[in-house]
Each structure stands twice: as C-alpha cells, then as structure tokens.
Design goal:
This protein has 222 residues and is α/β, with parallel strands linked by helices. The chain has a single domain, classed as Rossmann fold, CATH 3.40.50.1820. 36% of the residues lie in helices and 18% in strands. The protein has helices at 21-26, 45-50, 53-66, 80-90, 112-115, 118-128, 150-154, 184-191, 207-210, 212-221; strands at 3-7, 30-33, 72-77, 95-101, 134-135, 148-149, 168-174, 196-201. β7, α8 and β8 (196-201) form a beta-alpha-beta unit. α3 crosses α4 (80-90). 40% of the residues are buried.
C-alpha cells in the first residue's frame, strides 16, 4: 500500500483534498493531508510573517518523521510544487514518487514569484499591500482560505539535485484555464524531458474539487 502526503496550494489547508482523501483511503492507502505553517486557523501574526518555503518543506519532513514514513508519494498542488521539490531534496531517499498537480516544478535558484506569470505576480503584490507579509486570497472562493505567507512566494529554492533521484516524477497539467495558467511553458519543458511523465486533465486549476475521481484515479493508477 502507498502512503500519500497531500500538500495544498496557496491560501488553502488540508481541506483542499477533502474529496480526494476518502477515495484513496477506500482503496486501502494511507493518506496525510497537510495544512502548512501560517495557514492554520490558530496561527498568530508572527507565525504567518515568518513562514517561508523552508518552513513549509520542514512541515513535510516533520510529518515523515512523526509517522516514520520511508516510502512516500508526495502530491503538491500549485504553489506546493515548490514545497514537495524542496522536501524531496532533503528527505534522504524517503520519497518514491512526486506528483506536481498543476504545480510549479522549480529548478535551483527559482522561486514561486520568478516562476509564475504577470497575472499572479500582480495577485501576490496586490494581496500583500495591506500587511506587507501576508497575501490575502484573491476573488471570491472558499471562505476557509487564509492569507498566505508572502515570504514563501519570494524565497528562492535551493536544490542539491537529490530530488532528481526520485525515479517517478509526474506533472499534471489542467487545461481548463488556458487564459491564466502559468504552467503552459512548463508542460512543454517537461514533455521533452524523459525523466518526467506528463498527464492532462480537462479541468480548471482546482482539479481536486472539480474532478476528484479523476485525480484519485490518476494517483492510484501511477
């Protein structure tokens, strides 16, 4: 059986995977869905202000330690592609599969800010204007969304290359929001890389909500 660690994207918590988790568990697998530091309902201002990409990678590593996981499938949505890459690079061989679910796939020295498009840089800048350290959720969405630590968007990732020893690396491209997606060029890049397997879902960005059965089937079919 597989141990899945599900890491949500910006502004969201473990609830982001609430429709997918029971499908994986019903198939007999162990599932841990994370809420990252700074996104928890009881996190205070200083916690949100200080949380960065390293903090979030450490969240994943602590979960692996706590549950003594040695053979994990990390699934990261959107921003969390940065998180699972950083965690895998530091996990000392405890990751067997990476799934970037419509998510960033960073190279050393990149950040979420540098990897995204002008639309989302505008979203980040406008959203952080009120506090200078937390990016408010854009638009009208799930009321459970919370302001996201700005530092995690702008911190550059440092990768040693150890994450490239994860033999199963997959990217899922959601094609239903072509007008705003920052991932079109990434899909092209990874399709040309034999180390990666690229999938496509005809959904908007939040595939876990729009098509949980399809997401679960993809994860289970790996």
């Amino acid at each position: 059986m597989t141990t899945f660690v599900l890491v949500p994207g910006a502004w969201k918590g473990s609830w982001s995977f609430e429709a997918v988790t029971p499908l994986l568990e019903r198939a007999g697998h162990t599932v841990h869905a994370l809420t990252l530091t700074g996104l928890r309902p009881d996190d205070d201002r200083s916690t949100v202000a200080s949380a960065n990409l390293d903090t979030h990678a450490d969240d994943v590593l602590r979960l692996l330690d706590r549950h003594r996981v040695t053979d994990a499938t990390l699934v990261g949505h959107s921003y969390a592609g940065m998180v699972i890459a950083a965690a895998a690079d530091r996990a000392a061989g405890r990751i067997s599969r990476l799934v970037h679910l419509d998510a960033y796939v960073p190279r050393d020295g990149e950040s979420c800010w540098s990897s995204t498009n002008a639309h989302f840089r505008d979203v980040f800048a406008a959203g952080a204007a009120a506090t200078g350290y937390a990016v408010r959720p854009p638009g009208d969405g799930d009321p459970r969304r919370r302001p996201h630590p700005l530092a995690s968007f702008v911190q550059t990732i440092r990768l040693t290359g150890a994450h490239e020893r994860v033999t199963r690396r997959e990217f899922v491209y959601c094609s239903g929001w072509e007008d705003r997606t920052p991932f079109a060029a990434l899909r092209t890049r990874l399709r040309a890389d034999p180390a990666w397997r690229v999938h496509e879902l005809p959904t908007g960005h939040d595939a876990m909500h729009e098509a949980p059965e399809a997401v679960a089937a993809l994860l289970l079919g790996g």
